[in-house]
Automatic annotation (TrEMBL):
Residues 35-139 form the Small ribosomal subunit protein uS4 N-terminal domain. InterPro entries: Ribosomal_uS4, Ribosomal_uS4_N, S4_RNA-bd, S4_RNA-bd_sf. This is U3 small nucleolar ribonucleoprotein protein IMP3. One of its GO terms (cellular component) is small-subunit processome. GO terms for molecular function: rRNA binding; snoRNA binding. The keyword Ribonucleoprotein applies. GO terms for biological process: ribosomal small subunit biogenesis; rRNA processing. Residues 140-206 form the RNA-binding S4 domain. Its main location: nucleus. It holds the Pfam family S4. It is found in: Nucleus, Nucleolus. PROSITE patterns: S4.
Length: 214
């Protein structure tokens, strides 16, 4: 190259010390980009998965109702997580396909999301735009997993049982319905030993003995 780029001359124009995009660059973008018209924004929404707000108010209410989210803050946290995952996937996609950094971190990202139970094994980074959603994360909440395991018929009932201390994951009693169950821990979701619900279930199955009642 015959001359330095603008970034090489003054990197502070682009990033702060903490690695965040500088206010100056934000202002530059604001001046360069005009407000999109309605039909333009609608079209761009399909491809802009870095800043795309995937869930509007109606979608928010629907998801909160479906998965019995009691706190809107939980929904907002999941939505932010989805945005960060898409942003990371987008940044990786800007690297060359054979770049060792891209290959390594794409695998780490997909493996992590699979272990969390959010993605299936057949997913690629290019599919994260559609696969990652608030619903995908909410499906790993403890009441939803209990419903999946047929421990309870309704999510609100499962939520109440969790808050009352009837449920444990592995050796630990969990009283927070927002607890996210990973794929590996799903088989360890059960009733606490002293839970009346466990005793009633065992009695119904004729599996209750003196040891279980202690």
């Amino acid at each position: 190259m015959h001359g330095k780029t603008l970034y090489q001359k003054n990197p502070k124009l682009f990033f702060t010390v903490q690695g965040k995009i500088s206010p100056l660059l934000h202002n530059t973008f604001d001046k360069m980009v005009r407000q999109f018209k309605h039909h333009e924004g609608k079209l761009l929404k399909k491809v802009d998965f870095v800043n795309w707000k995937t869930d509007n108010g109606h979608r928010e209410q629907q998801v909160m109702g479906t998965f019995h989210l009691q706190d809107r803050d939980d929904y907002n946290k999941y939505n932010k997580i989805c945005g960060k995952i898409r942003q990371l996937a987008y940044k990786l996609s800007q690297l060359q396909p054979d770049d060792p950094v891209r290959i390594k971190h794409e695998k780490l990202l997909l493996d992590k999301l699979y272990q969390m139970g959010i993605l299936s094994t057949n997913t690629t980074v290019s599919h994260l735009e559609t696969k990652i959603s608030v619903s995908a994360i909410a499906k790993r909440r403890l009441p939803v997993i209990m419903h999946k395991l047929k421990m309870t018929q309704k999510l609100d009932a499962g939520t109440a049982m969790i808050e009352q201390g009837h449920v444990r994951v592995g050796p630990h009693i969990v009283t927070d319905p927002a607890f996210l169950v990973t794929r590996n821990m799903e088989d360890f979701v059960t009733w606490t030993d002293r839970s009346k619900i466990k005793k009633a279930t065992l009695k119904y199955r004729n599996e209750l003995d003196d040891f279980n009642t202690m």
